């Protein structure tokens, strides 16, 4: 039995003239272990007495337990996803060595240091790295997509 059905039963007990203790006893006798607690029955009695006769949950702020509209699914990337740059991609190996052992007190310091690293590199560094990728790409085709070192 779901929450709404119990609320209807609680409302029925109220309309019959039962108090909260009698309602709890009646529900316990009929449904045993799955009955709402005394405080829940008391809260719904108070709502019904204030004139809120509906048994639906009211709207609340915050994160809903269930959504009405579909939520964008998060796609988990496999370990060698082609749309993610691996950490051994040519610009990162030198960057990792340069950052090794350094301590930063903010994200801005890390960003500034990383940008300075890439700004200091000559155009030929990037050109050579991209040309090396062509060889790896051809190996990947040769090995039919299997992992290439």
Automatic annotation (TrEMBL):
UniProt-annotated stretches for the region Disordered: 53-82
Top-level division of the source organism's lineage: Eukaryota
Basic and acidic residues bias locations: 53-69
GO molecular function: nucleic acid binding
Protein name, UniProt field: Mos1 transposase HTH domain-containing protein
Source species of the chain: Rhynchophorus ferrugineus (Red palm weevil)
């Amino acid at each position: 039995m779901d929450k709404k059905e119990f609320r209807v039963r609680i409302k029925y007990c109220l309309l019959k003239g039962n108090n909260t203790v009698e309602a709890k006893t009646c529900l316990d006798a009929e449904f045993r272990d799955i009955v709402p607690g005394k405080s829940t029955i008391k809260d719904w009695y108070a709502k019904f007495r204030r004139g809120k006769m509906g048994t639906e949950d009211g709207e609340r702020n915050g994160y809903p337990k269930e959504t009405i509209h579909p939520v964008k699914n998060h796609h988990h990337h496999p370990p060698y996803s082609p749309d993610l740059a691996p950490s051994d991609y040519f610009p990162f190996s030198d960057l990792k060595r340069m950052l090794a052992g350094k301590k930063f007190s903010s994200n801005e310091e890390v960003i500034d240091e990383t940008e300075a690293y890439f700004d200091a590199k000559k155009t030929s560094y990037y050109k050579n790295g991209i040309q090396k990728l062509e060889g790896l790409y051809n190996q990947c085709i040769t090995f039919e997509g299997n992992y290439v070192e």
